[in-house]
Write a structure and sequence with these properties.
- This protein is mainly α.
- Helices cover about 70% and strands about 5% of the residues.
- It has 14 helices and eight strands.
- The protein has a three-stranded antiparallel beta sheet, with helices on one face. Strands 6-7-8 form a three-stranded mixed beta sheet, with helices on one face.
- The longest helix is centred in the N-terminal third of the chain and has 137 residues.
Length: about 500
């Protein structure tokens, strides 16, 4: 039994002892944790106290700094207030000084006024004495003298006004003439075109003289066909390797020249081929005529022109007058007319349109007994142009009376373009003939010993016999020569006539 209890009691005792040890260990661990927590708590309290002290110190330092800053600002404000106070005191002193000066000036002014009033009274008394003395001397009252002076001044004013009016009128005339000259000179300076040769023949080069026989053809059928189809004269002479085409119609001459050049290049020359080439070249030339007319209108900025007008204008491309291409001349006249119209403040478009059409009669395809101005006027009337344009075209050579300022501008622009130096060239035969005619006209008059045309016919110098013509008669003779030249000759621009009369006495001392 005791042994059994021994076997049972030992495990129980061990278990109780184990639980006791574990309880004691747990109590020990709990006590250590509580102590650790207490230490952490104490450390946290101490750290919080330290941070609190630091925050308080920082707050005190910040407060001290702000107090010092506030004290500095207060000192600066007090300093500014003191400066402002000193300036105000200074201004008050300046105002006091100015007030004293003004008071003194006012008193001086009052004294001067009193002095002036006394002087005026004295002067009034003296003026009255002088007036009475003048009335006594002149025998006129003051009112009568005043009326006399007013009348005299009025007469002088009228005289001066009339003189001033005359002067203004003279200056206006001089200024208007100068302004007109300036406009014309400026317009001329802004325009310069080239000239072309005024010829009625064209030369076609041949590869060899054998080609002449082919151009003539059997029994002359080729050359007859070419002349019949183009309306030109084909001249085949002894000139080596060249054929001459002659015609006054420059369009037909151009068609014949181009057609012959193509036939020579092609080598096939017979009537059927000639007719085919001439028709083709005619169509090309007609197309070129239309294109040239359109090009000029486009360059000038003129629109709404009928096809007949464009074609008639383009035909002027093949026309020349005294070496001046008529289409270029028309374009130049339009540019000049536009400039003049702009300067004078009139309708610029009407002036340009009338100017470019003024020689359109020269491009008419039908022959007429009328001159080109009349033909052109009929053409532009049928084209439905403005009445001012119609009148300007018909009046540009004074065939009819111009009825608008644009018509006058077209006349001026036409004269500038045609008569300016270098615009036109004459053939040598016409040039020599014109000079001979000038000299012949002058030499027909009694008393003229010799006449010389110089400066390309723009000046005529006449030597007169001093025994037959006196000084008083020379002027009248010059006028007669000028009238005779105007009647007998046609010429561009004007001709200067210089009369020379001198008495020459020669003696020898031996």
């Amino acid at each position: 039994m005791p042994k059994t209890w021994l076997y049972i009691g030992l495990p129980v005792a061990g278990t109780v002892l184990g639980w006791t040890i574990r309880w004691l260990y747990a109590r020990f661990q709990l006590s250590a944790s509580e102590q650790k927590a207490e230490r952490i708590k104490q450390d946290a309290i101490r750290e919080a106290e330290a941070q609190k002290k630091e925050i308080l110190l920082e707050a005190k330092e910040q407060l001290i700094r702000e107090q010092k800053q506030q004290e500095r600002e207060n000192r600066e404000r007090r300093s500014d207030l003191q400066r402002m106070e000193r300036r105000l005191i200074q201004k008050e002193e300046d105002l006091d000084k100015r007030k004293a000066s003004l008071d003194k000036t006012e008193s001086d002014f009052v004294e001067k006024e009193q002095h002036i009033a006394q002087r005026e009274a004295v002067l009034a008394e003296e003026e009255e004495k002088y007036r009475q003395e003048l009335e006594r001397i002149s025998g006129l009252s003051a009112q009568e003298a005043k009326n006399l002076i007013i009348q005299t001044l009025e007469n002088e004013a009228r005289h001066d006004a009339q003189a001033l009016l005359n002067k203004i009128e003279q200056e206006a005339q001089l200024t208007s003439e100068k302004k007109a000259r300036d406009i014309l000179v400026t317009t001329i300076q802004r325009i310069a075109t080239e000239t072309t040769s005024d010829i009625t023949v064209a030369t076609v080069s041949l590869p060899s003289d054998e080609m002449k026989g082919r151009i003539i053809g059997r029994e002359g059928r080729n050359i007859r066909a070419l002349e019949t189809l183009t309306g030109v004269d084909v001249i085949i002479d002894d000139t080596p390797e060249a054929v001459v085409i002659s015609c006054f119609d420059t369009v037909r001459k151009e068609i014949a020249k181009v057609a012959l050049e193509r036939l020579i290049s092609d080598g096939r020359i017979h009537p059927a081929r000639i007719e085919e080439v001439v028709q083709k070249v005619t169509r090309e030339i007609q197309q070129k005529i239309y294109e040239e007319g359109e090009k000029v209108l486009f360059d000038l900025g003129i629109h709404n022109m009928s096809q007949e007008g464009v074609r008639a204008l383009g035909r002027l491309y093949f026309r020349t007058s005294y070496g001046q291409n008529v289409l270029n001349h028309s374009k130049e006249v339009a540019i000049i007319a536009g400039m003049l119209a702009a300067e004078l403040g009139v309708n610029r478009e009407i002036a340009k349109r009338a100017a470019v059409l003024h020689d359109i009669g020269k491009g008419a395809e039908s022959d007429s007994d009328q001159n080109h101005a009349e033909v052109g006027m009929d053409m532009v009337r049928k084209m439905g142009e403005d009445p001012r344009v119609i009148n300007a075209v018909g009046a540009h050579h004074n065939d009819i009376e111009p009825n608008s300022i644009e018509a006058i501008i077209v006349q001026i622009a036409d004269a500038i373009s045609a008569a300016r130096p270098g615009a036109r060239r004459e053939t040598i035969d016409n040039y020599v003939k014109r000079l001979e005619n000038l000299e012949t006209i002058a030499e027909k008059f009694t008393g003229v010993e010799k006449a010389y045309a110089i400066q390309a016919g723009r000046e005529l110098r006449v030597l007169v016999n001093n025994e037959k013509i006196s000084d008083s008669e020379v002027k009248e003779l010059a006028r007669k020569i000028a009238k005779q030249i105007e009647t007998d000759l046609c010429y561009p621009g004007r001709i200067k006539i210089t009369m020379i009369r001198e008495t020459r006495i020669i003696e020898y001392a031996r």
